[in-house]
Structures are given as structure tokens and as C-alpha cells.
Fold these 2 entries.
Entry 1:
Amino acid sequence: MDNSDTSPLKREDIWVALGLLTRLPLPARHWDANRPAALAAWAYPLVGFLLGLLAAVLGWLLLALGLPVDMTAAAILLSLTMLTGAMHEDGLADTADGLWGGTTPERRLEIMKDSHIGAYGTIALISGFALRWSALSALMSAGYLWSPLLIAAMASRAAMASLMGALPNARSTGLSKLTGRPGKDAPRIAAGIATLATLLAFGLAGLWPLLFAAAALIVCRTIAQKKIGGQTGDILGATQQITEIAVLGAICALVL
């Protein structure tokens, strides 16, 4: 008999999500081994809020100390990379190498597992950092720091939850397979949290970055389904990065 706990919301899900998506030193806790880890996907935007908050505090302190905006933006991106163990950046690089370096789904998945980085991955990493850095620099130069970082971090992690629910696992092993599928409730709750936060931050104008986030998610979903027939941990990481870039770009268009 299956004794798995599948209730849509549990407080411990926040700790599970923090353990999955960050490298923060978490206190020892008792985990419910019968509860699938994927059900914690509803809390991904909350993890994004915490990461965005920590990065924004760092940015505020550096700006207060007189550090130039461009260096502060670079420091913010470095802090986010360290807080997450570069897992999303690694996913972006592996996805770029695999999806465009292979000619069959099997070969693409094989390349994505390779620890070496190729030309596509290098270009994706450099482009991703450059786009995020330029957007953050422009926003901070105009006096915007807190809301862009918080909303981009939350919306991009809600996109991960949505993709987990929308596509099957493309391989029978790996982090995404071990985490499982979140069902219908967790992605919807994650999307609701990110949507509410965006509307609170920008009012009805927040529909603009939400539209960009949805478009980025659709693009990532379509490409992943066509190229490998599903999602992996690398695909989820790439989706986070691409959605974050899209949201930051939309906020730039909205407020600058």
C-alpha cells in the first residue's frame, strides 16, 4: 500500500525546497520520507524570495559603501551563483551543449551528463551573465534594486515548478527523476505566489513581466519536448536562467 503524503501544502516543504535549490547551511530536521520531494515545488518562489532578498541586501550595502553600480551588479550575480551552488548556471550550460550538440534525444541526454563544457555551453553562460548583468546595472542606475531582484528570482523558480508539472522526466535517473513529479496543485500554487508578488510590486503593470515569464516558459517547454521528449534537472536550471533574464528585461522595458 502507498503511504505517500500527497497533501498540497506542508510547512516542511519550504525546508525541502531550500535544501534542493540552495547551498545554505540548514539546521538538521526530520524529513517525511513518504512525501515526494517534488510536492515542495509550490515553495520554490519562496526560496526565490529569500535568495533575491539576500542578494538585494548585499547590493544595498555595496551601493551604500560607494561601490559602482556595475561592480555591484556583478557582485550580486556572484552571490546568487554561490548561494545556489551554480546549479542553474550549470543547467543552462549543459542544456545548450546537449540540445544543440546532439542529433538524437539519446545523444543529447548523453552530452548533458558530460561534465565538460563545450562551445554552446560557454556561449550560453557568457550570454546569460551578460544579459543579467546589463539588466541589473540599468535598473540600479535608475534606482531600482529590491523589486526586480525579488520578482525575477520568484517568477523564474515558479517557472521551474510549472515545467516539472508539464513535462515528464526525460531520463530514468538524475536529480529531476529522484525529485519526482509535483502533480497539478504545487505548480499552480507556485504560479499564484509569483503572480501575487509581481502584482503587489508593480500593480497591473506587473502583467508585463508575467507575460514575458510565461513566454520564456513556453519556449523552454517546447524546445525540451521537441529535443528530448521531457525535462531534466539541467532543463529546469536553464528554464530558471532564461525566465530570470526575460523577467529582468521586461522590468527594464516597464520602468526605464
Entry 2:
Amino acid sequence: MKTSSTLPPTPAGKHAIVYGGSMAGLLATGVLSRHFERVTLVERDRFEDGPQPRKGVPQSSQVHILLARGRNVLSEVFPGIEQELKAAGGEIMDMTESMAYYVSGLWRPQIRGGVSMSAHSRPLLEWVVRQRMRALPNVRVLDGREAAGLKTDADPTRITGVKLQAPGGGQEEVLEGDLVVDASGRGSRTPQWLEALGYPRVEETCIHVDVVYACRLYQRPPGFEPGWDSLTLSPQLPEVRRLGTIQRIENNLWQVMLGGWLGDGPSADEASFLEFARGLSQPHLYEALRNAQPVGPIHRYRFSHNQRRHYERMPRFPEGLVVIGDAFCSFNPVYGQGMTTGALQAETLGECLRRGLAGVSQRYRQCVGKLLEVPWMLATSGDLRLPEVEGKRPPVLGLLSWYGDRVQRLTCYDEEALRVFMRVMHMLESPAAMFSPRMVFKVLTSEPDTVALSRGPKPLAAVPRAQVA
């Protein structure tokens, strides 16, 4: 599948409006700039001149992963963006070679797998992308404004613009456009606005997980060479519900996340944070942190539920409106699918616009409804393994969970299986690749050898804090 940016621009209209400067909103703006004479991005926050956290992304200090498929879309919308990220301090690493990963009671081999990952903070990623977006000659940014409602034609069967005001109130102004894109996130007010216009309330599916996680930056100690740039101690649901991750980012920092399901997460104090790390399934993360130098406070978050709004099921929906990113569907953040799924929705929007502006809202919501089926299934099937989590469980959940556990274990001692799994995880291949006859045979018959059982980084004591610059 190719994004529209790899093809000649297709004129669709004069003016498009995106409200919400999320990654999905930034990518949508880039895509729309190829189809409209003008594009306006509206954002409630004031954009800082640099990679700074912002209020509209309260979770910006947590570990973020842009999967390989999402990076491909980003590079197609903004060619050369990866080189700019590297110049700004980010790194691109081979996912399996640079990461020590503990799952299903075994360590995965650190081999060159051919699937790379981005190693940088969310603020750095957003800032570099914003710089590219601002450089587009037909894009205008209106920050410090929020969407206060939709403007419609007389029927109302078409959205013709968006009402804007300063955050918290003030005089209202109307910005008119041929297409309005809602990229405002989980708190999107589009469901209420559509209902006020006489449309049915969009159906929602929620899977409550109450994930609690805390994040902190640390200075990577000089001389500390454990053989990995990233470390993950994975949960093994439903028995093991805690996880921990260290990710190396720009400026030689570690971005650390600790968390758990159903409220089982650390508090935002140092003693609780370190005690939680010490209680993980392996000692490596705690040993890396206990003498490392913290940089800044601990940020604690709570994610209550997966949320999918089924716009594709609505019997009536206005033309001229598109919903994208977390405003359409948001996932448990520990699975790392959010930014990539938003990128794929932006790509889908470009493909729908290649057939013209007429009917684009209907085409788009149907295509995205299908697009979301796989990532939603992958995220929620993991969460639904916990008996306390309420939700409709498919009849095959037990069989799929058993098979998935066997696959995870297989990736720890079969390099071919690991490479296939990583391509599926990064959305480069369909999950069907895990069910090929060859993979099924391996899953059912293979067992780890003594080498696989003994594999993994040896626990290391961190460099004493006195040596940290």
C-alpha cells in the first residue's frame, strides 16, 4: 500500500482544516497539503520553538514507539524526515539487535532482524515533524485556538467549517473549509456535536483495563555497557501483570516506564518507583536504575480504557468531516500501536482523496473501520485475558491466547520465527504470517534448547552514582 504522497498530487478542493496538532493531525496536514490549495492546522496549545512537552500531550514523557510501518508512512509524507530526526539527536536501531527482551520466561536472541525502531522522545519527534509541516508553502498554523463547534450547511448534511475561540472562551470566529479533520484525541467532542445536529450518537466499544504507569528520565551512566540500548521485561498475562522498559533516547538519556494492569502501578515517589522495578520478573532493570542519576520528576499516568468509536457503523454521517487518530480509536498505550495506526489513517485519507472530494467522508470511515480491526483485536485480546476485565470475548480467545504464548516462546529460540513476528508486530505483514503451515508446525513441535534457556544479558551492577557526570 502506498501513501498518496508518493504519487502526483490530486486536486480535491481549496481549503482543508485540521484541528488537533497530534502526530495524526500533523501527518494528516502533510497529506492534505497535496490535495488542497490551502490547509490550516488549528491547535489549542501554543507550539514551542523546540522539542518541549506540551499540555495537550500529557503523556509525552512516556516511552513512545513509532512502528516500522508508521515510520514508512512518515517518510513518504515528509521525505528525508529520518535523516532530520538523526541530525536532531534521535537514533534508528535494529529492533532485535539493540533490545534485550524478556518474554514468556525466556530472553530473545539479540540478532540483526532487519526491522528498525526509532529511538527518540515524543517531543523531539513532534518538533521535527512540525518543522517540516511549517515549511510547506500552503500550510498555515493557528495555535492558541480551540475548536468550539462545527459549521454546517442549511440541511445540515455537510460540514462547511469549524467554530474557533481562545482556550477557555472568548469571541467566536468561523473558519470555513471544504474538509474538516478532527484530530483532537480521546476527548473529541465530535460525538456530541453530531448529536446536536440531529445525527445518531456514534456507537462506542470500551474495554476497561485501568493501566497505571510511571515514567522518568535518567542520565545513562558513563561506562555502563550492558550490551543493550533498550531493555523490556514483558508481562505474561494473566499471571504476570507488570512490565518495565528502558529506552535510550537523545542526549544519552534513558526513558524509563514501569506499569501494570488493574491499578497495579508505582506511585510517583522515588522509593515506590525503585521498589516496583525491583519487583519485576528479572533484576536487570532495577540494577540499571538503582545508582543511575534521575533527570527530572516521575510522571504518573492512568489509562482507564481502550476506546473505539464506530463511525463506520453510523447510518447517517455528514460530508466534509473526517475523524482521525485517537478521536476515532485509542488503544492501551503499552502495546505501542497508537501513533502508527494514526499514520495509517492519514495514509488512508490520502488514498480516499485520490478519488475526489465527493463522498470522501463515507469512503474514509468505511476504510478506517476495516483498518482498525486488526490492531484493535491485537490490543484487546491481550487485555481480555485478565478475568477481571469486562468485555465481549470471542469464542476462540482461549485458543488464540494459547497459540500466542507458544509463538512468543518460539521467538526466544527460533530466529526465523522472531523475524516473522517482528514484521507482524511492526505492521509490515499481516498476522496471518504467524499461521503459515511452517510456523504452525514450529509452534506445535519446537522446544527450547539449553542455549536458549541460558541466553540473556547477565545482571550487572550499575556504575556508582559518584561517577555519573
